[in-house]
C-alpha cells in the first residue's frame, strides 16, 4: 500500500521523491494520531463530536493519499458521529481499523 500511496502523491502533486517521502510521512503521522484519538474516544473518553471530528480528519488524510475506499469508510464514521449513531460509528471503526494497521 505504501508504494500505491507514493505513486498517487507523485502523480497528483508532481513532486520529487524527497518531497513525496515527506508528504507520505506527514500523512502517516496524521492517520496514526487520528486512530489514537479514535481509540481514546471509543474507550469512553470522547463523545460524538470528537468521533465526528476525528473521522473528518481521517477522511481528509485518506483521500489526500488516494485511499478512496478507506476515505469513504472514514466519511461514514464521521457522519455516524455527527448524527449521534455511536453503534454505527463503532462498527465502521472496527472495519476500518484493521485496514489501517500499517500506519
UniProtKB/TrEMBL annotation:
Recorded superkingdom: Bacteria
Entry keywords, A to Z: Phosphoprotein
GO MF: protein kinase activity
Domain HPt: start-end pairs: 16-103
Entry-linked InterPro entries: HPT_dom_sf (IPR036641), Sig_transdc_His_kin_Hpt_dom (IPR008207)
Record GO biological process: phosphorelay signal transduction system
Phosphohistidine: modified positions: 56
Record's protein name: Hpt domain-containing protein
